[in-house]
Amino acid sequence: MKTSLYHRVATAFVAVSFVASSHALAEVDLAKSSVTAISKQMNVPVEGVFKKFSAQISFDPSRPASGSAQLTVDVGSYDLGDASYDSQVIGKDWFDAKTYPTATFVSSAITAAGGNRYNVTGTLTIKGKSETVVAPVTFTRRDNMQSLDGTLPIKRLQFDIGAGEWKDTSIVADDVTIKFHLVATKF
Length: 187
Description:
The protein is mainly beta.
C-alpha cells in the first residue's frame, strides 16, 4: 500500500527525461532506458519502475538552449514487484490511472551547468497538477550512443499522490526522487 504512493511519485519523475542532438529528435532506445521512482515507507527506501514511457529529445551540447525534451509516462505501468501493491498504486488514492493515465514533463529551457552537466527546466504534470521543476542532467556520449542521466526530487502531496490515510507523511514520506536514464542514437 505505502509502496504504491512511491510509485506514483516516481511517475512524476518519469516526466523528467530529455536530450539528444541537433534540432532533430533523437531515437530513444526504450529497452536501454529507464524511469524509476524512489520513496520511503516507514523510512525504508522503496523503488518502483515505470514499464511504459515515451520520450522526444532534441539536444546539441554545444547549443543547449536550442534543445527540447518531452517525456510521457504511463502511470498504470508502475511496477513495485508485487501485483497487489501495483494494483493499489494505480488506484484512486495514489495515481488514479483511470482518470489520469499519464504523467508528463515538457521542457521550457536547457542551460549548461559546467562540464557535461545541464539543468533542464520544464513543467511536470501528474494527476492534473502542474509544477515548474528543474532536473539536473548528465550527458554522456559513447560510440554511436548518447545518454542522459538525472534525478528529480519532488513532493508527492503537491500532486495529490496519496489520499486519505496515505497523506500521513510519517508512513510514506512526502519526498520522492525520480531517476531517469535515457539512451539514444548519436546524431
